[in-house]
Amino acid sequence: MSVIYNRVALIGLGLIASSMAHAMRRAGLAGEIVGTARSVETRDAARELGFCDRIVDTAAEAVDGADLVVLAVPVGAMDGVASEIGPKLGEGATLTDVGSVKRAVIETVAPHLPDHVHFIPGHPLAGTEHSGPRSGFAELFDNRWCILIPNGTPQAATDRLTAFWQGLGANVDVMDADHHDLVLAVTSHTPHLIAYTMVGVADDLSRVTDSEVIKYSAAGFRDFTRIAASDPTMWRDVFLNNKDATLEILGRFTEELFALQRAIRTGDGEELFDYFTRTRAIRRGIIEAGQDTDAPDFGRSGKHD
Ligand code: NAP
Predict the structure, then answer these.
(1) In this model, does residue 241 exceed pLDDT 70?
(2) Is residue 74 within 6 Å of ligand 1 at its C-beta?
(3) CA of 226: how far to CAs of 26, 47, 74, 220, 255, in Å?
């Protein structure tokens, strides 16, 4: 691979940004990687880990001379960061983000940008329940999908960012923001909410002790606890910013749950069997598409956000 951007600025140095830096290094995609984060602790950790060429104190300094700027902060923090860097972005620079929600990010970030910037929102569908600069690894995006929302930007800028994400290991799809938010409400956001709820229910159930929950946790519940260990700030921001789609899917989920509840009460084994047969086929499809990151060869408890 050859250099695609001469200077990449990473704003935020958590799981996603640090993984991007490792993967950029692996493929030689950036002439220079400049990083910044809100806290001194994170900046110091990033310096110690050495995945950036330079760590600077502010976002405004980081974007100076960058031809690619990546916003890798929680969705609720995008507005503040965009207002800081907007006036500093250079002529022809590409700005992207990795936020898990797209319509709200476009609405908060775009007003801060000068006309000469190519704004191409993005979302890599790759993650783990870990966060912070020490959790990143170069393989995070390998064979995963990254969705880009070109938003009327010139094709050449989108092609360049596509090549960049492919160099990081990902497959790239293009989508509009509202469709992205609906798809992710189904595949990620609502499942996270259900996992949070189930773990909360187990915690509240006084007739089953915490030690029993831990001792006898079978695969299903263990998976829920892993998902429910995801970063509270990130997930609070996801639900606050993907309200409509999440509520729509949650409404449908509740209806189906009631139907299954009735089938259990009335002893309708046929309905339960047919339902579980249909859902089993979806699982097979995911495995056949190579998107099961919990497969043993992945080596980490992967899941996307
Ligand atoms: P992370 O590991 O928690 O890192 C977040 C980074 O943002 C940290 O460097 C943090 O700085 C900085 N930050 C937090 N609040 C900030 C604020 N108010 N102002 C400025 N900077 C702030 O998070 P992540 O998992 O990399 O997620 C980053 C983005 O990627 C989020 O928008 C998330 O929705 C998206 N995403 C996450 C996943 C996933 O599974 N984790 C997957 C795909 C996309 P300090 O460390 O100094 O506080």
Answers:
(1) yes
(2) yes
(3) 28, 29, 20, 10, 26
